[in-house]
Amino acid sequence: MPYVDGFVLAVPKDKIEAYKALARTACAVWMEYGALNYVECIGDDVPYGELTSFPRAVMAKEDEVVVFSWIVYRDRQHRDAVNKQVMADPRLKAGDMPFDGKRMIYGGFETLLQARDATG
């Protein structure tokens, strides 16, 4: 079963275009080094929960939008090899990040269950 890295972060609304540019570059880099799938999603219906929620988890402010992303690999070993190359790539080292990395949540996950719509 595939291995997945997941990310949740808050991006200031006035930096969305900069984030999109960074995401396009990151996608190209990860895919070049062997990631199987790379997805970036901008929050559209992400309510602020009473106890827990995506916005609470990243301490999103009124002027920020939540981004939910994931990258898929063959397995953990493949992920570690891909990420080693990605982290050494100079294309991701230039410039300031358009979000507060200290509030980003990330982690690696073993796939428990997977289904696909064959028509989609």
UniProtKB/TrEMBL annotation:
This is RNA signal recognition particle. It comes from Bradyrhizobium neotropicale. Gene3D superfamilies: 3.30.70.100.
